[in-house]
Amino acid sequence: MPSLKEIAATKGLLFGTAVNSGHVAKNSKLAETIRRECSCITAESDMKWTAIRPEAAKFEFTRGDKLAQFASDNGLLLRGHALVWHDLPAWAEAISAEDAETILVEHMKAVASRYEGKVGHWDVINEVASPNGLRDTIWLRHLGEKYIDLAFQVAKESCTATRFYNENRMEYDTWEMENKRKSVLKLLERLVSSGVPIEGLGIQAHLFPELAFSESKYSAFLKDVGALGLKILITECDVTDKELPADVAERDQKIADTFKQYLDVALAEPAVIGVLTWGLTDAYTWIKSVRPRTDGLPVRPLPFDDQINPKPAYQAIYDAIANAPAR
Ligand code: 9MR
């Protein structure tokens, strides 16, 4: 059977995962699985402000450089993540309105130029929208909405990577997510019509089996984004299994069905260029600490179990890619 990256390539799609340099350094089976299954990786945390800017006056590129080396050694497209985010080290939370633009621009230029030729996509901005418009962040408070325009301009001037806006919580039929989709579309329409150099929308797709999913509303949203001439990439797919039954076989099947239902709809949209999961193995997943099960059982949100053996979710992702129309 071809691997995920091989079946994806037959459709003109990317397949990949988020990963940290530390994970591949300590787990050779993970490194080998990424080499076999992935055409791209996202820097899960190695290129965040928290990693690169521990202090105002200090750039720390060690982890990012290691991940860039792993990507280049293995012919992987590397996705940098993220140049602008609200999750910041303490010193940056305290930036003054006066200094905000200088610090933002300086950081972006330093990081984007460091990884020029190594990072193929940048998440230039991450999680900037809210159901009511824009998320309240220090960047919005100090610089106003123009920080978004500025970020894409600076990215364009600093590197040749494809420029994405990456966003979360847009998939389901809830009041919150329907309004989030409206906020995002409104923002995208403004950016595109005013010539801001944005090239793609990254859709995180952290999935919840218990929420209602309207296939027609969701594909209409993807179509509207695609019609703006933007690429779409599913960037952080996984399934929170907090509300699912304890029985592993039953749970794994529901998780697989959740991936399949979502990816069937997403990959039917021609603007979608690929899918990445947020981690490959249940051994390393943010859900373990942030959304643990109340019964204390280990979470199983990803295509491979904690020993890196494929689960039904692997086959579900495979089938969704195999059923997708070719680009
Ligand atoms: O998976 C990441 C986790 O290990 C980090 O502790 C956390 C804070 O940096 O970020 C997690 O990744 C997030 C990503 O950067 C943006 N979208 C949501 C992801 C899960 O929280």
TrEMBL record:
The keyword Disulfide bond does not apply. The keyword DNA-binding does not apply. GO terms for molecular function: endo-1,4-beta-xylanase activity. Residues 1-320 form the GH10 domain. It is an enzyme of class 3 (hydrolase). GO terms for biological process: xylan catabolic process. SMART domains: Glyco_10. PANTHER family: BETA-XYLANASE, GLYCOSYL HYDROLASE. This is Beta-xylanase. It comes from Planktothricoides sp. SpSt-374. The lineage of its organism: Bacteria, Bacillati, Cyanobacteriota, Cyanophyceae, Oscillatoriophycideae.
